Structure formats: C-alpha cells, structure tokens
Input
Amino acid sequence: MEADNNEKSLNFIEQIIDKDLLEGKNGSRVHTRFPPEPNGYLHIGHAKSICLNFGLGIKYGGKTNLRFDDTNPTKEEDEYVNSIIEDVKWLGFQWDGDICYTSNYFQQLYDWAVQLIKEGKAYVDDQSAEEISAQRGTPQKPGVESPFRNRPLEENLDLFERMRRGEFANGEKVLRAKVDMASPNMQMRDPVMYRILHASHHRTGDKWCIYPMYDYAHGQSDYIEQITHSICTLEFENHRPLYDWFLDQIATGDRPQQIEFARLNINYTVMSKRKLLELVEGNYVSGWDDPRMPTISGLRRRGYTPESIRNFTDRIGIAKRDNVIEYSLLEFLLREHLNKITKRVMAVLNPLKLTITNYPEGEFEEVELVNNPEDENSASRKLPFGRNIYIEQADFMLNASRKYYRLSVGREVRLKGAYIIKCNDYVADENGEITELLCTYDPETKSGSGISRRVKATLHWVNAEKCIDAEVRLYDRLFTDEDPAGHKEIDFKEFINPDSLKILSNCKLEPSLAEAKAEDKFQFQRLGYFCVDKDSSKEKLVFNRTVSLKDSWAKRK
RNA sequence: UGACCCAUGGUGUAAUGGUAGCACUACAGUUUUUGGUACUGUCAGUCAAGGUUCGAAUCCUUGUGGGUCAACCA
Output
C-alpha cells in the first residue's frame, strides 16, 4: 500500500482505460481527440479538456487528434481555427498526424445516411421545426410520430438526394433517424440528422447545402479516426445512447466509447463561449485576448505561463461531480511558477519624490542586485543610485501606527540593495498632498558591506534621473459576483467589475527594462508579477500586472 | 410528473470492504535586505435513515439535495 505513496492515484477515466487495456479492447490502443467547434476562442475550460486528452495520449503511449467539429457553417470561421491551433501549441501539445476536420467526412457521412435510409432507419420529414418540436413531447410525456415517418424508401432516397442537390430552401425538410418517439430519453425521439443550410462553409465552400448534426457526425467521426476513448463533458451524457445507436448502425470493427467528465467552473468568471462572445461584441472587453478574459489568449496576454495552466488542470482533477474551483488556486500555481522563473526588478507605480539631502548633488554610484534570489545560478545587475529617487507613495505615511513598518518622519528603512535612510521631513503642496520626502542616508550601511542594523522594512526605489517611464495596467477580477451567470433574474453583465482595469501612466522603472519585449515577464519587487503587453513599444512601454504578490499587510489593514 | 448522472472540511480531489489523506483558502508562528518565497502549526469533512458485514465513505434499499435533457447549436 505505502509503495503507492509516490504514485498519483488514477482518475476514473484512467481506471477505465487501464481496464480496457487489460482486456485488450481495441487492440489495446489508446487514441483520444480534442474536438473543438471553431466558433470562438478557447478558454481555460478547454485547457482542462486539452490537457486531459493529450495527457492521456502521452501517458499511455497512444495518439491524440486535433479535430475541428465544423458542421455548422453559419457560426464557424477560419479566424477561430487559427486561434485554436495557436492555443493548443502554446499550451505545449502536438497532435498526431494532420489536423482533422469533421467536414472531411461529409461524403462518408452522407453515404452512411443513405445506407440508413435504405435500411429503413432514417426518413425525410417535411414538417417545420415548430411542428417537430411540438411532437417531441416533454421529458414526462412521450412524443408522437411524424406523419412522414413511414414514407416509402424510394421517396426518402429521392427526397434526401434532392435536399443535397439544393432543391429545397432552408428548413423545408430534414433527415431524421427513426429511433423511438416514446423513449424516456429525449435524445432518442427521432433526432434530426441533417438540416438544409444554404451557407458557405469555411472549408467546403458551397459544395454542400445539407449539414450533419452533432449527434450524427461526432461518433461517426470518432469511428473514422479510430478513436478509442471519446471524452466529453457531462451534458452529453444523455446523448450516449444515441452515440451508440448510430455506431450500432455502421460500425464493424473497433469502436469508440464516449466517457463524460465534469466541465471546469471557476468562481468570479464566466465560462461559456456564448457569454465570452457577448463580452467581446458588446465591447465590455477589448477583445478575445483581453487580459481579463479567461480565454487562453487572454491568459497568455495577461502573463500566465503554459506550465501554470497545465499544473492547474492537473491539480483540479477529473471527476463527474459539478465543481467550482476557486480562482485562488490558479493564482497560487501561477505565482509558484513565476516565482521560480522571473527576474526581480524595481518599478515604482505611484512615484513619490525622495531627496537624500546628505548625498552629493550630481553624483551617482552603482549598486548591485541579484536577479533572482530563488535561483542560485542567477546573475546580478547594477543599478544607478543617487541623490534623487522615487519610492512608492504607499511606502510613506504621516501618522503611522506601530504596525506600519515603512517610512514616516523620524523612521528608518533600507532601500533595497542600497543604504539605510532616515526620513527627516516632508514637503506638501497647498492641498496638503505630500510631494517630497527629505531624508538622509547612512554611508556605512551599503548593502553587502557587512555593516547593517535591523530595520523593519526594505523599500524598492528607482533613481529619478536614470529611470524610464512606462504605463502599467492593473487588472482585477472581471466580475464582482462569485457566480455571475448563476442568477436567473440578473444578466451576468450586471456584475462586471467597474474597477477591473486601472491604467497608471506615470510609472518609473529601472533602466534595464528599456529593452523588454512583449510577453517578457518580471517580478516588480514587492508589487507583483508583470509582463510586457503587445501594445508596448520602444517609445511607450506598457506592462500588464499578471498577479500581485501575496500581501499580508493589505490583509491586516 | 420521466430518464440519466452526482453527493467526502470553505473549495477541489484521494481512500475501490480494513487508521478518512493531499492541495488551495483562512488563521497563527519561524526565517527573511521583497509585509514575497520557504518552513512549522491550527481550524475544518464522509447528505440522511435503514440494511448486509467481524468491519461501510465504499455494497444494497429508501429518502433528501443538486445537475442534465423538450435547437433544424455543439
């Protein structure tokens, strides 16, 4: 038993696979697939599915396909295809073989549909969507059969062929599977297999004007690709009998099995492509990659690392019960990774002028700081120090309590990597705003000199003459409510956090940051992790706050 | 008034008939030239009732609570 201590326990899907392997099912192959519909950008919920499917492929020495489930030309676009490909790669995964598209199988799907018609298992229905819907019944009440249900085979064949040829308008006819209108499972009540859509498809153009529905296309696509384990989310559980029914009609060899797991939910955010689209189209955010979005591209722009996201999907586990993960777990894993890899730099977001009155005017010296104390191989760099510096406004307080460790008149602090200073006086403007601090430094206390005494706090700073300017964007959660989409009476957009973005345009950075490029990541000492935004340029540096450092002082207040 | 699924600390997830564990959160402390990191500790859990068993979170029954399903979406 205790030999297993180092081994991670298996989730229920891995247990199923282990059993299948043991029984030699499907020739003991493992072949999964990630099947997004290209109708939006991927979000972190998809990351869970990506890591699961590709992870299983890797773990069992099997394969994983990337398949675009593109059966609805009215919603799908190449822009989405491209973003999905980029996101999967960025997360660190590589699919086997070529990228697959359900649209590649349109002809085969059509042929199988003809076969079903010939076997009397599918029929063309002339009724409107409303009529069909009315006949479907309710979960409690069985449906009634369509008047067209038993039309002759030849007529069905002819009509279906003419549907394909474009002789009918959208909605005029559908092809339905003949299953069971009285089934207690609504999915089995003669589901629609094909609908007429005179729309141009992003890949097949105008070749087709009838398109297969998800239920008819998905399992067959899995079968064509020799998928062994077709993993999807819980809402498809009721579809499984239908998934199997279609396979029963056509499959002769190995066949895939559908396994459902609980989708990811995270508090203080929304996780549906429809709602995210709404945020984008309503300009509530700047786009799919707005750093506040839970999209992969948004997280990337915000400064998340693929490692932290993969780690996250690993920690949350795979199970069947509904779950809401706390955002703090994601942030914990993010900080954990960023703490190891980022260079520490000094940046002052809300500058307050500080003059060291006993430091000679016009003189500078260099002080040395390690780039990352967490990394013993880390190099160090030199920073200019002088008479005039900036510190953070929040690091000075006029009437400071004993719990406040930072600067106040008469108190001492250390300037990180430099000297201990003492605040003697301050200057205020006509409004009482403090505009400048007057301090003296103790030349004996230079960092590394070995001469030191205990001070309560160490502050970050930049040299006022030799710093560079930048814009810094501070992000907070996009929603103020833990479950913005969970209120029946209130639209989720009502909960958008008005303070989710704060732009600081007068930030002062240490000069080494001048060359930073988009997506470069840093720890701004004592403040948090920041990355260069894609809006950044040599002329105007722009940083995003990825996540703040944990702040036990802020909590105490 | 149907079918299917689910139920373990605040959150997530283990334990697969044999000592209820891990992580996050919260709180307290140690270390610290980041009020960070690291480390230590504390609080806190098997939905309920019956049954089977030497022994039940685990198996059975019933109940309770929650989720999904009535797109020509996926």
